[in-house]
Design a protein that fits this description.
The structure holds two protein chains of two kinds. By secondary structure, chain A is mostly helical. Chain A has a single domain, classed as Orthogonal Bundle (MetI-like fold). Chain A is 66% helix and 0% strand. Chain A is built from eleven helices and no strands. In chain A, helix 4 runs parallel beside helix 7 and helix 10 runs antiparallel to helix 11. Chain A is elongated. By secondary structure, chain B is an alpha/beta fold. Chain B folds into two domains: 6-93 and 175-323, P-loop containing nucleotide triphosphate hydrolases (Rossmann fold, 3-Layer(aba) Sandwich), CATH 3.40.50; 103-174, no CATH class. Helix content of chain B is 33%, strand content 24%. In chain B, helix 4 packs across helix 5 and helix 5 crosses helix 7 (159-171). The chains are: A mainly alpha, B alpha/beta. The A-B interface holds A 1, 4-7, 13-20, 22-25, 30-33, 200-202, 204-212, 219-220, 223-224, 307, 313 and B 56, 58, 87-92, 95-96, 98, 100, 102-108, 117-118, 121-122, 142, 144-145, 147-148, 151-153, 155-161, 166, 169, 188, 190-191, 194.
Chain lengths: 313, 326
């Protein structure tokens, strides 16, 4: 592909001017914007750390048996709170279950919540936030004021109240309740991205060529404004995993028999500080998972900055 | 004029801002013939760009409102079309060219994708056909090695090449009218001349008409058949390009011409127009140029002078046009 950009060596191309001649790619690879992002990511150590951790956690969630030798639900009560050993790498919990297996299984629940919250937030933001930003007027007023109402309620507090009504639930219910209070953040982000994006030259140019509004939004405004949304989506995975663990710890989130780091922490709290290891392992995994997504977000942001954040590049 | 392509008739555009109403275009009237190039000359804020965007109805409203007049494309009043019909006009009948080609091209798509999309959408042809036509278009606007350019992203192009791509997109649907809004202002001087030459030859090949918006008098004289001079939203002089250049009848036009450096007058200080462009929120009464005009008398602030015929096809809005000298 790069070769046909250059004239064959034996022909003399008459350049239109000095500047235009200089602008001929000098055999460099054709780089797309996303290709450029990928190139920067590959040079970023944080990206490798984040990607490695996330890959491990995803594997844990999809195929926990790869990591296990024991059934997490085989809990002889006689083995309660055994210390770390070759048999039980992380010891056993108060019911006598293998703690390592329990902690591994917790990844699935956390990721499930994180991904549901993040993807639902994106869907809501890309429809309502984009509509508010692009069409403005009363559409914007209705959506933005509605978002403001929900935004004014702290996520954890609001979710705490609603989940108390349900007396807790499964990962899907907990996710939906978190989305209920967390959606305004990303919706506002998309709205402001769309507002700044719709005043760009290529949007005006597309209008002069006869494109209709919705097409311009879909084809020009959103693809150019997607970078900050992706970065924020990575943060949302991390923060909603934290929110779920927090709510579950407070006793209104997930319930047994779901295996969750939040539930493990709640139990560990009753045995602290004498059996501190019960607190340590789920906390460590929780921190690593949340940290990995935050790191991924930062690395993505730097790689996409400034070209995809509306700068001149 | 027989069968004008574009008739702008008493066009008024207002911006309703928090600080008050700005009359950005205040009664502009002209006709444009087939294959004719009209240069609209004026400084920033004179309404020259706003008038073109009003014709294409792409002003952001609010704050802009077309408050009066007509814009006729042939015998169709563009201001009476519904939005769907207007979209059909845009690109296919009237195309527009912008000042900065790099911001007018979408950075996430290749040049080829953008031209192909336009052709597929508006011509309803297959991607393969569209690609063939895109290649022809790039050749037609004089882009070297066009095959490679199809796969290039906008940021990989020089300003001159990018503007040629924009020209290719503008003529892709064979419009009858091209509104070129300062098409060369962001380009290197050497490239400017080439792009202007390209526009001139496209107009003579296709019999397309062109409104060339510029603040550069040399560009206007070099390319245009006629020149319209705008000041503070009003048309103050309109006439054949050579006539306006040799024989300006409005003090503003005359002052503009005097401020062009002349290579034979080396040591003289270049005359500048005194004062500053009017704030349109508080536009001067009567003739808006009178506070800066050396010919002004007590009549000038009282009422805007009407456009008067001062020569063959030569109109000027000045009470004292017969005293004005170059």
């Amino acid at each position: 592909m790069s070769d046909d950009l250059l004239p064959p060596p034996d022909t003399e191309v008459k350049p239109h001017s000095m500047t235009e001649a200089l602008a001929l790619p000098t055999g460099a690879k054709q780089l797309t914007l996303w290709g450029d992002v990928w190139r920067k990511l590959k040079r970023d150590k944080r990206f490798y750390v984040a990607a490695f951790l996330i890959a491990i956690f995803v594997l844990m969630a999809i195929a926990p048996f790869l990591f296990l030798t024991k059934d997490p639900n085989a809990c002889p009560i006689s083995d309660s709170t055994l210390p770390m050993s070759k048999q039980h790498w992380f010891g056993t919990d108060i019911l006598g279950c293998d703690y390592y297996s329990r902690v591994i299984y917790g990844a699935r629940t956390s990721l499930e919540v994180g991904l549901i919250v993040s993807s639902l937030s994106i869907v809501i933001a890309l429809s309502f936030g984009a509509a508010a930003g692009y069409f403005g007027g009363w559409v914007d007023t209705v959506i933005s004021r509605w978002a403001d109402i929900w935004f004014s309620i702290p996520t954890i507090l609001g979710a705490l109240l609603v989940l108390t009504l349900f007396n807790g639930g499964g990962p899907v219910l907990v996710s939906l309740v978190i989305v209920m209070f967390a959606w305004p953040d990303m919706t506002r982000l998309v709205r402001s991205t769309v507002i700044s994006g719709k005043s760009r030259g290529y949007v005006r140019a597309a209008r002069t060529m006869g494109s209709r509004g919705r097409r311009i939004l879909r084809r020009h405004v959103l693809p150019n404004g997607i970078a900050p949304v992706l970065v924020f989506a990575a943060y949302v995975v991390g923060s909603s995993v934290g929110a779920e663990a927090g709510l579950t710890f407070l006793g209104v989130g997930l319930r047994l028999p779901t295996i969750s780091w939040g539930l493990q922490l709640a139990v560990a709290d009753t045995r602290f500080p004498e059996d501190a290891y019960l607190m340590f392992w789920p906390s460590l995994f929780l921190c690593l998972l949340i940290g990995a997504f935050i790191l991924l977000g930062e690395s993505l942001r730097d790689a996409m900055d400034p070209k995809l954040f509306g700068g001149d590049g | 004029m027989a069968d004008p392509v574009l008739t702008v008739d008493d066009l008024h555009v207002e911006f309703h801002t928090d600080d008050g109403v700005v009359k950005a275009v205040d009664g502009v009237t002209y006709e444009l013939g087939k294959g004719e190039i009209l240069a609209v000359l004026g400084e920033s804020g004179s309404g020259k760009t706003v008038h073109a965007r009003a014709v294409l109805r792409i002003l952001d409203s609010p704050p802009a409102h077309i408050t009066g007049g007509r814009a006729m494309l042939g015998d169709v009043n563009l201001f009476e079309l519904d939005e769907a019909d207007m979209r059909e006009v845009r690109g296919a009948r009237i195309a527009m060219l912008f000042q900065d080609p790099h911001t007018a091209l979408d950075p996430v798509y290749t040049v080829g994708d953008q031209i192909v999309e336009l052709l597929r959408l508006r011509r309803g042809i297959s991607a393969k056909e569209a690609r063939g036509q895109a290649l022809e278009l790039l050749e037609r606007v004089g882009i070297p090695s066009p095959e490679g350019r199809l796969n290039a992203y906008p940021h990989q192009l020089s300003g001159g090449i990018a503007q040629r791509v924009m020209v290719a997109m503008a003529v892709a649907l064979d419009p009858v009218l091209l509104l070129a809004d300062e098409p060369t202002s962001s380009l290197d001087v050497t490239v400017q001349a080439q792009v202007l030459e390209l526009l001139g030859s496209l107009v003579s090949e296709t019999e397309m008409s062109m409104v060339l918006i510029t603040h550069n008098l040399a560009v206007a004289v070099g390319l245009a058949d006629r020149i319209a001079v705008m000041y503070a939203g009003q048309l103050v002089e309109l006439g054949p390009a050579k006539e306006v250049y040799a024989n300006p009848k409005h003090p503003y036009t005359a002052a503009l011409l005097r401020s062009i450096p002349d290579i034979d007058r080396r040591d003289e200080r270049l005359p500048a127009i005194t004062g500053s462009p009017p704030n349109l929120l508080h536009a001067p009464s009567g003739c808006p140029f009178h506070p800066r005009c050396g010919y002004a008398t007590e009549i000038c602030p009282t009422a805007m002078p009407p456009l008067e015929e001062v020569g063959p096809d030569h109109l000027t809005a000045c009470y004292h046009w017969d005293q004005v000298e170059r």
